[in-house]
Amino acid sequence: VSYVLAHSGGDATAHILDMKPPTVAAMAPLASSAFAGLALLGTVAVVGALRGAVSFVHWTTALLGVALYLTAHRFAGTAALLVAPAAIQGFVELSRGMSGLTRRSGRIALGLLAALALFASVRSLHRERGPLFEAVGDSAYHPTSARERLRRFPKGTNVFTDYRGGAELAFWLDGRVRTFVDGRTPLYFDDTDMAIARDATLDTARFMRAAERYGWRAAVVERTGSACAALEHAWVPVAADALYTTFVPPTDGELPIPGFVPCGPELVAPNVCEADPGWVLRTAAPDGSPVAGYLAAAEQTRCGDIALAEGTLPSPRALWSLRGPVHAVEVLLHIRRHEIERAQELAEALARSEPMSLMYLAASPALDALPLAAQRSVLEGIAAQMDDETLPWVRSQLAIVCAAQGDASCAKFHAFRAALAGDPAVTRVLEWLAQTAGDPRTRADAHAWRKTLVSPRP
Q1: CA quadruple 25, 131, 75, 94: dihedral positive or negative?
Q2: Which CA distances in Å does 340 have to 331, 360, 363, 371?
Q3: Is 268 a domain residue?
Q4: Residues 430 and 411 both lie in one domain
Q5: Within this chain, do residues 246 and 292 fall inside the same structural domain, yes or no?
Q6: Residue 201 CA to chain centroid, in angstroms?
Q7: Interval 129-154 mean pLDDT
Q8: pTM of the model
Q9: Do both 371 and 412 map to the same domain?
């Protein structure tokens, strides 16, 4: 009872997703494979119970399973195990009153429903963690570069780690460094610990105070989290993982890794060719690791020898957490080899699945090598993902492509918004709309926006 109470209340559990109660949306069988399986078991158990076939013990354990699941997401598996005995008894009772053909049909239907729930779970796992039943795993899912870097520190060093990566680093390093609040909350960390961990990443000033209080000598944080944004311009990035970046204080004398982007989905800077003339970028990850191979291949594809890039680029299966950026490098390789049809096919697929990985392609002259339809797919994928936060130059590029295709409606939608953002690159599209748009209002608006855009600002 105390364990359930610890997982169902308090400030810490309110901020941990799998400790929150499931929502109505999460309990929709078509939206959640876990709930689909649980609902299937529960239905059979209830029908059996109504017939008086389920024992009091199994009925009680089933109710306990349901109560646990309604307490927190993390109890879905436990709930299924607790409901299963009642479901089995219920199914046996149902089958007794059926003819042989009906019994077999019921078993087949139940088996198909169970297989469907299992398939949904496997598909979700495949999407998140990569191909199943293969020897090659997603090593980049874990902070392996951070692990190697932290091994250099003296025993007992205090390190800031975020909620996701701290526990595995603590396990790997076997107490060599002292990590911070992580997924072992609330077993080892209380509400205050968890709150301090969250507040410390709200801005740079708070993090620096916390670093002074706890004596942190390094920080390992998720690339897309608020902690990374707080550290990006305050500490020095020294190691790269697919999902994590390792920082150290500037007082340690470390130099930033040239051409490396510490935060966000992309690891390689757009200006890497100018920023890293010494080809140092690959040293951000351990030699021979998939991340080091990706960094080297991405830099070679943009700045150097595509033959070297082909030899170092890891398989997307081996680097599943970075499969989008890996495929984006493949698109550039195909373009540089003048394999435009293959580049177009891969770019359009990426635009549907992971459009943000194509940001570098969208900003580079290489995009012009693709047909207009493929260019539009790339840019529209990015704009759909970013929605109202789409960068002005992306809208300008998209307006230019739409105008080249003769699509006035698309050109208007993006050109006017790019003009509002003050991007002069869209001027020619506004001129085109002012002269050729079929709608008089669109022509007048385009003329007014062009005039506004080119007028000198006070």
Answers
A1: positive
A2: 9, 17, 18, 8
A3: no
A4: yes
A5: no
A6: 19
A7: 78
A8: 0.79
A9: no
